[in-house]
Fold:
Amino acid sequence: MQAPLNPPLDTPSPADPVTASRIRIVLVGTQHPGNIGSAARAMKTMGLGRLVLVAPQKFPHNEADMMAAGADDVLASALEVETLADAVSDCRLVLGCTARSRRVQLRELDPRMAAASVRADAEAGGEVALVFGRERTGLENAELQLCHAAVHIPANPDYSSLNLAAAVQVLAYEVRMALLGIGAATAAAAPTPDAAPHAELEGFFAQLADTLDAIDFHKGRTPDSAMRKLRRLFVRTGLDSQEIRLLRGVLADAQRMARLAGQGRD
Ligand code: SAH
Structure:
């Protein structure tokens, strides 16, 4: 018998279901229920099952059921929450998908790089979220600010906005390729296993904003730009819980000194 001419060099390993179970797809403010169903189907075909809906406009809905086809189990187990912060509070990696490139001061990843990071973090035990915006208006700036990085599918720059469920399909496919270890998707991505959960980081940012006010850092300027830059700086460092406690201790002292100074002036 003749040996095959082109034996496969890399037989893909089956995607690890435990790793996949740490990955959630978050749809924010979805307007058309059919898109929720199509997204569920797109997820299931790629081995993802955790869907979180942030304030969907119409759900449950028969159009969602129709479009989900055989993925009704994904819809049935979907979680509904009120805010994006609620949807990602326990996540160590939160990636926001945006149709508009370089709109925010966030690190920007292409879907392949994003999928490699998703795999690295989920394999290291972290909870990971891929966040998608509204059909008409996408993610609001404040919502993108809750993300650690932005993901942009490098589509036709003159027509770059994919249908919501199509965008979910592209990202879910890349995540599957990464989990299967196929192709360039395995590009080195350092996991951030010790990174603090999202809610802790947000608590730190809230206290940082209060402290900057208390020490009159902004001097009449609006705080938005400085806070965006500071967020970007701290997100890049991948703070762990202990480091956040240390920084919050520093902030607490600064706040105390600002109060004392204020009393001294009265
Ligand atoms: N008109 C909106 C587009 C919304 S499309 C806007 O300009 O922002 C709905 C969602 O699909 C987006 O919020 C985003 O999460 C995802 N999406 C669509 N096209 C994308 C692209 N090229 N790259 C990454 N995500 C995309």
The chain is about 45% helix and 10% strand.
